[in-house]
Amino acid sequence: MTTNITPCIWLDGTAQAAADLYLSLFPNAKRTSTVHYPTDEAALGPNAHMAGQVLMEEVELDGNPFTLLNGGPQFPQTEAVSFQIMCADQAEVDHYWNGFTANGGAESQCGWCKDPFGVSWQVIPRRFYELMSDPDPQVVTRVSQAMYSMRKLDVEQLERAARGACRPAPSTTRAACCARG
Q1: Dist. CA 94–CA 52, nearest whole Å
Q2: What is the pLDDT of residues 29-76, one digit of tens each?
Q3: 34: domain range?
């Protein structure tokens, strides 16, 4: 038996714009289908105002299928569900972070951000998980503390924290220490 799981993101009239953003950000991305609401308003009931408009955009983002559904305002986005992107390096972190937070997106803490459509993304460098798997609990503690002080994760600052190079003076915040090395 083959089971495919496709996340369906409920949006309020912005599926086409979300698809366009995601297709511009992800390598090897493609639109696989666009489905429109029927044009017969009587058949749509409470969604009569959507007659002929985009119902769903189906996309593949780096090989992962997603359905973007124009369902209406009934179910707003929540941070309880997010999509995690494992980034190879800081340049990739910057690419996704800047793409999601531009034009109405929002930064959050610890590598989380929202795109302009309210969808939550975790933009994480692979190196973060490597550092968090270090057998030395002090390394894990220092990396965790550094991460808690960040919005966008910074690989260089995480590396400095892992090495113990980030030791703030009593009057200096850890974030300020890590930022200057």
Answers
A1: 37
A2: 999 999 999 998 888 888 888 899 999 999 999 999 999 999 989 999
A3: 1-74
